[in-house]
Specification:
Layout (H helix, E strand, L loop, with lengths): L8 E5 L4 H10 L5 E5 L3 H9 L4 E2 L1 H4 L5 E4 L6 H8 L8 E4 L3 H4 L10 E7 L11 H5 L9 E7 L4 H14 L3 E6 L2 H32 L5 H21 L9
Parallel strand pairs: 1-2, 1-4, 2-3, 4-5, 5-6, 7-8
Antiparallel strand pairs: 6-7
Helix pairs in contact: 8-9
The structure holds nicotinamide-adenine-dinucleotide (NAD).
Length: 247
């Protein structure tokens, strides 16, 4: 079991999925030893096409410092039931969404540390300076983002190892914010799925009304809405106040 963060052994389970491919692309650029496991034929093909060797999950887990479970949330129960018993004492099992951990659906062990880390995606106020940063809406390629994480251990060494892996899989990362599993489980459904997504949908419906009920030409309505949305969000969230700016 590694005690420094220089060269970790990391197992990616579900390496051919959406998150599995993203985080594998980033881990492949590091000095860490990475093992890739994937069950579906299409996923195995994607891992192979990226030039990475697929091994069985049962072979990937023993000896790994960190086991990243990039499998669907519904599979996390059976996958942890199968793989957590195979982990070395002191290993960290990292899930990428807190719902299953918070719902108590994961198989755990006293000597295996459970962690969760969710990417925040690049901020709307990020100062993007390159075309690559502008194109990277999701994050994990060029645009810096934060991540929010939880770890069920007081061991500073384990936290440091987990932060190293989080910074690698979601790179480039500005900050890792530590919260509880419960707080992490509350954050996305409330702030994001309920509020931010609803406001996005509402803006879209307002645009549709302006175009189809009021008869405003779409380019005019879009231009008015998108520019003023930027101002409204800057005023509301960053505290900008254009009227306070000296003329
Ligand atoms: N997709 C996103 O935008 C996103 C963002 C943040 C977090 N997450 C989280 O990441 C995790 C993965 O989500 P995803 O969207 O990448 O899912 P996905 O369905 O795209 O990929 C999951 C992969 O896991 C593989 N798999 C399933 N069971 C397996 C097993 N027993 N062993 C090995 N591989 C197995 C599947 O074949 C598939 O390739 C989930 O916890 C999800 O909540 C997803």
């Amino acid at each position: 079991m590694t005690t420094t963060t220089d060269q970790l052994t990391i197992a990616v389970i579900g390496a051919g999925g959406k998150m599995g491919m993203r985080i594998s692309n980033n881990l492949a650029k590091t000095e860490h030893v990475v093992r890739y496991a994937e069950t579906s034929p299409a996923g195995r093909e994607r891992v192979g096409a990226a030039g990475r060797e697929v091994i069985d999950s049962a072979a990937a887990v023993p000896g790994a410092d960190v086991i990243v479970l990039a499998v669907p949330d519904l599979a996390l129960g059976p996958v942890t039931e199968q793989l957590v018993p195979l982990a070395d004492p002191g290993a960290i099992v990292l899930t990428l969404d807190p719902a299953a951990a918070y719902a108590g659906l994961l198989t755990t062990r006293d000597d295996v540390i459970m962690g969760v880390a969710h990417p925040c995606h690049p901020s709307i106020f990020l100062e993007r300076t390159s075309k690559e940063e502008w194109a990277d809406t999701f994050g994990g390629i060029a645009a810096p983002q934060d991540a929010v994480a939880a770890i069920e251990s007081d061991d500073a060494g384990k936290k440091s190892i987990l932060e190293t892996v989080i910074r690698a899989i979601y790179a480039p990362v500005i900050d890792v914010h530590w919260v509880t599993v419960k707080q992490l489980a509350q954050l996305e459904p409330t702030l994001v799925e309920t509020i931010a997504c609803m406001i996005g949908r509402l803006l879209n419906e307002a645009l549709d009304e302006a175009v189809h009920t009021m008869g405003v030409p779409e380019p005019a309505a879009r231009a008015m809405l998108l520019g003023h949305t930027q101002v409204a969000l800057a005023n509301g969230l960053r505290g900008d106040n254009p009227s306070a700016t000296p003329a």
